[in-house]
């Protein structure tokens, strides 16, 4: 490229000094650019890599096909691993596995780091005011991780054949969110995090054997 530019200047009658200066300067620029790119690449290799979020961080929902099962003790706040995230009939269904084995009670729910409450049908009260047609705007269902659990009927209905009553999730604590916008164009307003909307649970966790009582206790 420097030679081509020099030939062009030479052809149009530029002085030899200008031709050489341009050719040399352009070549030096390419060398400097190459050195800069190389140094940037080396720096990126040496820089510490950010750690991927883990379910045990307490707030995150991650997509990980081979994630370890996590057992919690005491009262904890737990995020989890996404088991399914699929749209159906204008609603986004997102189920998150938060832990292994039965817990005593769920005492708190967070959506996108916001503490929320549910009405009797599982609707999130804090989302009812977000836009028109607020009925069923955001629904949350949970499971305590019983030895024999019950499949989420909402998933069975939304994904017949793909999610069945056999998908019970025995000994798995979980939460299901159903995001309903009403209008597609309102989705980002009602759910600023979109499909990345997260859920985490606060619960009194794993029930363990208490030798003093001769029984299982939280």
UniProtKB/TrEMBL annotation:
Q: Identify this protein by name.
A: Uncharacterized protein
